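HUMAN:
Sorry, I am quite new to this. Are you able to go through these amino acid letters and fold codes? The numbers rather puzzle me.
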Amino acid sequence: MLLQTPQLVLVPDNQGHLFLHATTFFDKINFQAKGHKVARKLKKDGTLKVELYVVSNNSFSEEVLKMQCINPVVHRVDLGNILEVDEEGHLSGTVEATIYFLNPNKNARSDRRRGGRTVVRSTSGGRPSRPNPEKQ
């Protein structure tokens, strides 16, 4: 398991939308998801860039902040239908997701530090494998 590098699963739904489920593991308990940004169009090489934002919540006690434990941070991103998925689950391009650490004292997305990056080229299958809670 790599710390601070997103583990990606792409899941298509029945309407042709593609969902990105990203789990990033940290060795401290104070990290939490703080949103995402999806590029509006593909790069020339067919890559869709996704930025996953995390922030450090320092409101925990000093004792808790010193603890080392595995903390999964989960992002669920609707990628829409920018990429097509064939029957075998292969994409018409690639998805590149990068973790960015935001400064907890500022709101600006420009004040950030880059973490791990992962690229994925296929889905978890040609049909939906996880329920979409918003459609139930």
In short: Residues 125-130 have pLDDT under 50 and may be disordered. The two ends are 33 Å apart (CA to CA). The beta strands are 7-12, 18-26, 31-38, 47-56, 71-80, 90-102, 112-122. The chain is about 5% helix and 50% strand.
